[in-house]
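This entry is listed below:
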Amino acid sequence: MENIAYTSSFFDVDDYNVMGDFLGRYLPNDVMAVENGHVKAQISAYLTESEDDNSGITLSSLRRLAKSTGVKEPESISHTVELIWAIQVATYHQPCFRSELRTTCKKEDCNWRYECKK
């Protein structure tokens, strides 16, 4: 039986390094930047959608977002603020949503800024 999981046309030796290089050309920081951009876009889309349909942030939809951003067992978290903190931690940000830091926050590019300052 032919092994179809690996074909030389998909991974040429010049393009793929089995030591973990992403297609042999990109550094880990490049991959992390792409991942961070994707997560930021996910959060932005979620917040825009919750505004557009006037549903606001719901616990169930926030759990789906948390799961997609890498939060372990989001269904065990029962408070919106704690879920957002978990998302912030999973996306390598300070868990500061609606904390005492919001009055002095200078992070203009934070996805959660508008909701946090409500």
